[in-house]
Structures are given as structure tokens and as C-alpha cells.
Amino acid sequence: MSARWFGFTVGVVAAVAVLALGAGVWAQGKWVAPPEAKNVKNPVAKSDKVVADAKKIAAANCVACHGAKGVGDGPAAAALPVKPANWTAAAVQGESDGEIFWKISNGRGPMPPWKHLSEKDRWGLVHYIRTLKK
Questions:
Q1: Domain 32-130, CATH 1.10.760.10 — does that match?
Q2: 36 CB contacts (<8 Å, ≥6 apart)?
Q3: Long-range Cβ contact pairs of 58-63 (< 8 A, separation 24 or more)
Q4: Distance between CA atoms of 123 and 10, rounded to whole angstroms?
Q5: Domain ranges of the chain
Q6: Rg of the chain on CA atoms, in Å
Q7: Per-residue pLDDT tens for 99-129?
Q8: Residue 67's closest CA among 86, 91, 90?
Q9: Burial class (CB in 10 A: 0-12, 13-18, 19+), 12
Q10: Which pLDDT tens digit goes with each residue over 14-50?
Q11: Please, which pLDDT band fits residue 83 given cuts at 50, 70 and 90?
Q12: How far is Cα 57 from Cα 111, in angstroms, rounded to an integer?
């Protein structure tokens, strides 16, 4: 086998291995926040300003995946192996504020952690997500 062919074969095998490992990362069960997150209360008072500010944060950071209406249909969603949460769905709306905050903060799979946003902004996003309830 030539060195060129061998290099190509090794490259293909490595790419397949990375994809297989990546698939394992994305193939996760239902996303559940830890039990201690459930009872954490939102310390940020809801106001029109908090919700408006959070809507701007969502437009800048979340719309690509979650979509303009929060239903998980953003332009980047089609390329993701795990579809973004539909914030309007009963499953999301049924979660506690602490659970939603924990998921925003920690991320999982293609959902990045958003800890670089201030806690106030992440709690504001929780208030904004609540406004999308059907």
C-alpha cells in the first residue's frame, strides 16, 4: 500500500471514529436538570424591561437554533443532530424556573453553556421563555 493511500485510509478511519464518538455524545436521553435545580427560585423580578432585555439577548444568542418564536426551528436547527427545545411546548413550560436556568447555564450536546451571560440575564431569559407559553 502506498504511503499516500495509507494516509488517506487512516484519515478516513479517523474521521469515521470521530463521527461515531460524536454521535454517542449527541445520542442522549431526555434532558433532566438535577433535582436541586428544581426548587431554585428566580431572584430577578419580572418586569417589562427585564423581558424586553431578555428578548434582545435571545435574538442575539438563541434565535439561530430556537427560532424567532422559540419553537426550535431556527436556521441552524436543521443541521443539528439533536433538535433545539421548543420553548412554547408544555414540556418546557412545565419545568421550574430553576430547571430552565440550569439548562441555559450548563448546556448539553449542541446546546452550549451560557455562563458567560450574567446570572441576571439568564434569569431574564427564563422570564422571556415564560412569555412564549401557548
A1: yes
A2: none
A3: 58/125, 58/128, 61/114, 61/117, 62/125
A4: 47
A5: 1-30, 32-130
A6: 19
A7: 999 999 999 999 999 999 999 999 999 999 9
A8: 86
A9: exposed
A10: 333 334 444 444 556 899 999 999 999 999 999 999 9
A11: very high
A12: 16
Find cell 436547527 and name the residue.
Answer: 77
**What is the pLDDT, as a whole number, of residue 51?**
98
Q: Which amino acid is at 127?
A: H
- The one-letter amino acid at 109: G
Say which DSSP state 101 is in.
H
Give CA–CA dist 84/31, Å, rounded.
11
Closest CA to 91 of 34, 40, 31: 31
112-121 contacts, C-beta under 8 A, 24 or more apart: 114/61, 117/57, 117/61, 120/44, 121/53, 121/54, 121/57
| 79 secondary structure, DSSP code | G
| pLDDT tens sequence across 122-134 | 999 999 999 999 7
